[in-house]
Amino acid sequence: MIDLKLLQKEFDTVSKKLMRKGVDEKLLEKVKVKFEELKEAKVNFESLQAAQNAMSKEFGVYKREGKDISELKAKVDENKIHIADALEVQRLRQEELEKIAMAIPNIPDDDVPDGEDEESNVELGRVLTPKEFSFTPKEHWELAEQNGWIDFERGVKLAGSRFSVAYDMGAKLERALINFMLNYNAKKGYTEVSVPHIVNRKALEGTGQLPKFEDDLYKIEGQELFLIPTAEVPLTNLFQDEIIPADNLPIKMTGYTSCYRKEAGAAGRDTRGIIRQHQFHKVELVCITKPEESEAVFDDMVNTASEILTALELPHRLVNLCTGDLGFGAAHTTDIEVWLPGQNTYREISSISNTRDFQARRAKIRYKNGKKNELVNTLNGSSLAVGRTIVAIMENYQNEDGSISIPEVLKPYMGM
Fold first, then answer.
1. Domain residue limits at 263
2. Catalytic annotation, pick one of 93, 162, 261, 361
3. Is 154 a known active-site residue?
4. Which of 58, 228, 287, 405 is exposed most, by the fewest CB atoms within 10 A?
């Protein structure tokens, strides 16, 4: 959640930054009204409380002077009722304000480029040069079917569209990549964590998936539980409602999970193959750190994900997302896009985001800074999306006869 005190104090400045991210001016005006209503409720409560204190002091005077206190007592009792009502109004006004605030995205960093969509994203650099083929490279779904690695029809039979089944070398490659990524991240100082694939509503509110993106989530019927859309949710919320000793920071974690998304807003996109599935595997990086160390940690995460692609000899590029393409909780995001020769384009394979203190405020994750408790910064990113890495390997390592070679670094993981 954004800093409401900052928004109230610097309303015009912060509003302009939020509008860069597409926040409706009418919503911000509604927040402004709620600020005023809450202020009035607080003033009313404090006025009644002051009157109560003044009347309480009069009791002593009345007793010393031998006056009848019955009328004063009646006033005090009546005022207590007004105080209770005023306190309830204040609570409701605070609740209304916070409910609206939960739907407001994070403030973008000042250096995030302006733009409406991915067309305005800024390329930061490229790593490795795409291979030149002596033949027309095939797309991954053709290669998957030809080699018997992935069965799309049986996936649909079992669960519906956007599900698939991996066979033999396809399944082995999937497992090999997960192990390789986790081991690589461990060498870079990230602690491996195995987490539940089901979380409660509070966890999803903490990282910003709820309330805004409930339509994209798979909910457990009859319970306030959901399948995770990313390991970012359970990994970050491990420290929900906690105060972390400063010496323990930064906390660097990595974890593998399956992820589950309805992709409600992606109808008609990537309907062939495994680029966009309802269930997919991902190795995640999550870091919790002090604000002043946030940028260095962010760079380390980007480098870690990029180095994995380099080790796999997969050409890729780094892209700075514009305001219109920035995620709800992100203040700054660098995407890593891998080269897919079959599609003759770069496609996202990792998204590294710094949410600053946005998630920490929602999830109440703090650290002990001397005598004060302050909000941490949280960061997250894919390292990497496993299915998309398989797609990249199939397309970049394909041979003219349709067979697929295996990257050298993965051969030990596959018994080759």
1. 118-414
2. 261
3. no
4. 405
